[in-house]
Amino acid sequence: MAAPNARILIVEDTLSLARVYQDYLRVDGHRIEHVGTGRDAISLLRQNSFDVAILDLLLPDMDGRDVLRMAHDVSPHSQIIVITAHGSVNVAVEAMRDGAYDFLLKPFTAEKLRSTVLDALKNQRDGAKNRAEPGVNDGGDENPRRAVFGDGINGEEARKYFDFIGASDTMRGIYRIIDSAAPSRATVFITGESGTGKELAAEAIHRRSERANAPFIPLNCGAIPKDLMESEIFGHVKGAFTGAVVDREGAAHRAANGTLFLDEICEMDLELQTKLLRFIQTGTFQKVGGSSLETVDVRFVCATNRDPLEEVRAGRFREDLYYRLHVIPLHMPPLRDRGHDVLQIANFYLQRFSSEEGRDFKRFSPDVADLFSRYSWPGNIRQLQNIIRNIVVLNNGPEVVMSMVPRPVSNFGLEGSLVNGSIEAPPPHPVVSVDMADGDRLWMDDPEALAFLSGKQMQQPPSGAGLGIFAARPVRARDKNNGAGRGIEAIRPLWMVEKDAIEDAIDRCDGSIPRAAEALGVSPSTIYRKKQSWEEIG
């Protein structure tokens, strides 16, 4: 299978598991060493050359991701495969962004471990070949890990995975989760902002599974009136209600032996959620107005652009249904987190729309490409599609130039312009006289405000940077004497201050964690992890 005599380091603190991994790999003739701590792993990687390192992210002395980053620095040519628990796929995806070649979800088979190591060794050889032959990898892909992806998916194929476009580390992690989850019967729960490709992910799971030749039935729970939703899912018999003039099969029947995709699942009525839970548990359902039970074999995939846990806490989504559906979580990243994928997607749609509309566009000018790379795309891929369609329909030429880009994208980065892609610009700074009676003015003790009013320049962060929807909110200047003499007991723990800031952001965003994350300049997964840690603290 794999070339013998590859040198492999296993970093695993549980000795019994390390021995299992060693037994799995020894049949291929590899030389294997084992350490149980992150510090020992870094020390060994500094002293010796390893082809592959297999790293468990849960170690007793260090965070596994810190070990990953340090290992990548001290041994950049080693291919690192991370191991994580089944419910920690988001952590694994972030590990790939930090430089891991691939990840494995526990439990895994010997064949899965051996094939992943084989892919990593192939990738290392391809990377070594590219380093030895200047110009081989001049296609704009600076990361040699992209040369090979997963089970036989090479870099070019990764850029067009099913109907997805892009080979960023973030999306490669998504593709790997889809590959791992597709053969299973387990339910996949997809989250992400609108326009991030949740339905594409659901289709990819179906097409990658053994059910690919059976129907894929999508159903948007937010687009169908409440009174008709039960009939849409389960069907109805003639005479069940006014207008039911014939028997009708529902989505559940049509999806038999295939996949039923329930989009915007959090929009479903609570009463219907109870019936859906029973259907998922038993595989049986009853048509509206019918008296007999039908049994079908269906794989469930669901999606929402809301935070499902918040919906559970608010009483809008059944907790038992959430845990029944939330088996394999898959969070689709916003376009702003996908790096060079933005330009790959933009070029794809430029060529497609130019062909459809009979235009001559071939490329983007450098300044437009730079703008597209920096813009936050709050509407994600759907917004990008619409912007490019607008450009192609209203213009023509070999190159897209800045004058062709419509608002709001064209305003991004200009003075008084959009903040993080928001449609509304911040209000102008108020004009205040420094000669008026200012006894209790909020800005009296604020050096920045006083410098502004006196015409002096102060070094400031970029306008609106990281502030998002809070950019236009006034901030009260701190009273220098406030709290003086209260003592060290008045100091609050940092995690509590952070918790208050995050919860305030969520409240200001009407409970939307993705919007709050954008405003705070962090990823939604960061807020989810913080909230989970606060719950554990109690």
Automatic annotation (TrEMBL):
Residue intervals of the Response regulatory domain? 7-121
Q: Which residues form a coiled coil?
A: none
Q: Gene3D superfamilies of this UniProt entry? A: 1.10.8.60, 3.40.50.2300, Homeodomain-like (1.10.10.60), P-loop containing nucleotide triphosphate hydrolases (3.40.50.300)
Question: Would the keyword Amino-acid biosynthesis be found if you checked this record's keyword annotation?
Answer: no
InterPro entries recorded: AAA+_ATPase (IPR003593), AAA_lid_NorR (IPR058031), CheY-like_superfamily (IPR011006), Homeodomain-like_sf (IPR009057), HTH_Fis (IPR002197), P-loop_NTPase (IPR027417), Sig_transdc_resp-reg_receiver (IPR001789), Sigma_54_int (IPR002078)
Which GO molecular function, any one, fits this protein according to its record? sequence-specific DNA binding
Q: Which residues form the Sigma-54 factor interaction domain?
A: 164-393
Listed GO biological process terms: phosphorelay signal transduction system; regulation of DNA-templated transcription
Q: Which keywords does this chain's UniProt record carry? A: Activator, ATP-binding, DNA-binding, Nucleotide-binding, Phosphoprotein, Transcription, Transcription regulation, Two-component regulatory system
- PTM sites of type 4-aspartylphosphate: D56
According to UniProt, the name of this protein is Sigma-54-dependent Fis family transcriptional regulator
* Classification lineage: Bacteria, Pseudomonadati, Pseudomonadota, Alphaproteobacteria, Rhodospirillales
